[in-house]
Design a protein that fits this description.
α2 (32-51) crosses α4. This protein is mainly alpha-helical. Among the domains are: 32-79, no CATH class; 80-119, no CATH class. It has 6 helices and no strands.
């Protein structure tokens, strides 16, 4: 077994992981303005940080499109991390208030509701 390879035993609570993940998904879907703003800030920061790696302007401009798309990909991945933290905090708070099983059920309900809300929300053609 995998547990025989480690010198210490790690206990992973499946309800904690599932509920935190579902809460983070619900928060991510329910707050698209926050996630978009966070992604824009990360893209801008990645572009600024990567600019210092190039000495010549020609080389920087030559690879601009590739770097910008790569930075957008990394920003979309890293923008999930704060939502994972907030999902964990919501799980901890609610598990103390109403119990772990109820928190897990409520997180699934919140994720489904946020997903339906995001799907049924009318799209504005003026948004980017």
């Amino acid at each position: 077994m995998f547990t025989d390879l480690l010198p210490l035993s790690l206990h992973v609570d499946a309800a904690l992981l599932a509920s935190s993940g579902l809460w983070s998904l619900a928060l991510y879907l329910a707050l698209p303005a926050v996630s978009d703003r966070l992604m824009d800030l990360l893209i801008r920061w990645f572009d600024f940080a990567e600019r210092s790696l190039y000495f010549s302007t020609e080389e920087f401009e030559k690879t601009r499109t590739v770097r910008e798309s790569q930075n957008a990909f990394y920003a979309s991945i890293f923008s999930v991390i704060p939502f994972l933290g907030f999902g964990f905090l919501v799980h901890l708070f609610l598990s103390q208030a109403i119990g772990t099983v109820a928190t897990l059920g409520l997180s699934g309900l919140a994720s489904a509701t946020a997903g339906v809300w995001e799907t049924m929300k009318p799209k504005n053609s003026n948004q980017k």
